[in-house]
Each structure stands twice: as C-alpha cells, then as structure tokens.
Amino acid sequence: MQEKQTDQDQNQTGKLSLWQLVVSVLGAAFGVQSGKTQRRDFQQKSPWVFIFAGIVFGIGFVLTLVIIVKMVLATTG
Questions:
Q1: Which residues contact 16 (CB under 8 A, 6 or more apart)?
Q2: Which tens digits make up the pLDDT trace of 29-71?
Q3: How far apart are CA 73 and CA 64, in angstroms?
Q4: Is 77 a residue whose pLDDT tops 90?
Q5: Does residue 46 contact residue 18 with C-beta atoms inside 8 Å?
Q6: Predicted model pTM
C-alpha cells in the first residue's frame, strides 16, 4: 500500500525515472503499452524527454540493424 502511494506521489511530481522512460519508449516502439503507463506519460509537462529518447532509440535501432547486416554479409561472401 505504501509503495503504491510512493508511485502516485512520484507521478504527480512530473518526473519519470530512467526505467519508466525506457519502458515507455520501448512500449511505444513495439506498439504495446498499458493504459496506466500511457496516462502517466500524457500527464508529463513536456514531451521533449520522450522525443529525445525516441530519437536515441531510433538511431540505436538503425545502427544495430546495420551492424547485423554487415556481419551477415561478411560471413556469406
């Protein structure tokens, strides 16, 4: 019960932990996100942290794919 209260207090302050941000970005990337998480995200004061995290995730995802493709092509020929 005390833990739920702490989570609610943290959400009302408007600050997300790094873990909450990662979960939100991954949920958005894969298209699956709980209603509770979505409501928490939309209560944030500024979308810039999500935009920045999304750009970083997108760049990391593309670079990972490029590295995998280069490794596969190097082993096949």
A1: 24, 40, 44, 49
A2: 999 988 999 899 999 988 999 999 999 999 999 999 999 999 9
A3: 14
A4: no
A5: no
A6: 0.72
Q: Report DSSP state, residue 21.
A: H
**CA–CA distances in Å: residue 62 to residues 14, 17, 40, 48, 66:** 31, 25, 28, 21, 6
Count structural domains, the chain.
1
Query: CA 27 to CA 29: how far, in whole Å?
Result: 5
H/E stretch holding 7 reads helix 2-13
Structural domain boundaries enclosing 22: 2-76
Q: What is the longest distance spanned by two Cα atoms in the chain?
A: 60
Among residues 4, 3, 8, 37, which one has the least CA distance to residue 20? 37
